[in-house]
Amino acid sequence: MNNIVNEINQRLKTILNDYPKSKVKEAMLYSLQAGGKRIRPFIVLQVIRAYNQNYHDYIDIACALEMIHTYSLIHDDLPGMDNDDLRRGKPTCHKQFGEATAILAGDGLLNEAVNIIIKTSLASDLKIALISCLYQASGISGMIYGQELDIENENKKLSIDKLNTIHHYKTGKLLSCAFQLGGLIASPQDVKVLKEIGYKVGLAFQIQDDILDVISDSKTLGKPVGSDASNHKETYTTLIGVEASQKEVDKLFKEAIKLVYSLSINHGLIIEIIELLWKRVS
Amino acid sequence: MNNIVNEINQRLKTILNDYPKSKVKEAMLYSLQAGGKRIRPFIVLQVIRAYNQNYHDYIDIACALEMIHTYSLIHDDLPGMDNDDLRRGKPTCHKQFGEATAILAGDGLLNEAVNIIIKTSLASDLKIALISCLYQASGISGMIYGQELDIENENKKLSIDKLNTIHHYKTGKLLSCAFQLGGLIASPQDVKVLKEIGYKVGLAFQIQDDILDVISDSKTLGKPVGSDASNHKETYTTLIGVEASQKEVDKLFKEAIKLVYSLSINHGLIIEIIELLWKRVS
Question: PANTHER family, per this entry (chains A, B) (predicted)?
Fold first, then answer.
């Protein structure tokens, strides 16, 4: 994984450096370089590799996805949203650059992700398919809808079904999109199965976040633990407890692995992603 | 103009109504319907008409541009930016729906504009050209950069050159994009001239804004007059006075008209836009 993540990090830096100097650009680069694990872009490229295809021509697609993910974190952290001071152990974008620049930096990442895809030398039809997949996953029928649901349901008693819906939109859509982007590039006929794998992995990932917010420490997590409780957010652990939540995580990852084996690919590369996430402590 | 604007308004409403029900969608629709003059989308369609082409297939492109314009207003009005309570005589989006939903509504409009273009039945190459033009104009080498410059230069003594630069990016880029989108659809070889017309009209338009902020009344303008002064913003009128500013407006519109006559088109339709803007009082 490390080599690919290094390539993604290097490319993100180069992409940003190609823009004219500005404070917004600095803020975008700051948040992009604030220690993200690059799970989503890694998935895109790893799926391509699982089809024995060369991933190097598609690094910019993976970077565009990471830009969208980073924009969502910047805006989520704003005083008008979750009002967080720390993200991955560092001051959040608005703490470092001021609120106005942080709003614009988020806008900038959401805006430029599409330009990065357009500037690749891929065929126009493929570009359109990739942009459509990404911006539907991130839009108001996807991640943004999830963010809205999340806000609307603070301080409310939730059912597991409702919580699943919030997680599906807020986290699952974009994480599943990573699998789908890889599929659109390497094997369009498998996109449906890859999408389903992505939803299972995405939900497991989010339940893990709920668990880590309870059992981890702030140093490992890079942000205060117990923030869900202090934000009066209902989570998997408040609804069914840590142990049952972990069982749900295990079940989802196992279901995802079963789907992986239904595809004619180099399974080990996708299993590597799942195991990496399964074992994560932050 | 009225018929076309009605068609744009109707189509914007239909586009939004096609999305699933959510508070973000309501907020997006609220801001889209808060009485904008639709100058930018009207320009796109009027340029197409000036080449004797049918504009009906391209209404969604015009709508996408208006969505981007509206997102920029929603985010500009936020407490973390200009902190405005009124826009076009109505409560701003965050006053009406709360800050979190307003942030997301802006994000939603920026995000969905590209999906609207993608969903049209135009050729992929044309879609790519239109998306590229729009998102470069709105991005960190365009409008967002202008918004950042605007913030950075509050309370600072400015030269006319610096002010022109701010106006060029903050207003000119997107207004010129309207002319360019029409050109890309109807006559790609004329895009360079149309772009130049757009920059001249855009700068004239912004200087008019500076003038109206001094000489108009808040009822006509739909927002408090004198807001530039109270925000400690240097403008054309503070730098060279109302009369010299108006002369600059007249000069720019005349130069734009000269460029219009250099093109082999139905000139009257573009002159109609310019005269409409020249005479505007709000």
Answer: FARNESYL DIPHOSPHATE SYNTHASE (PTHR43281)
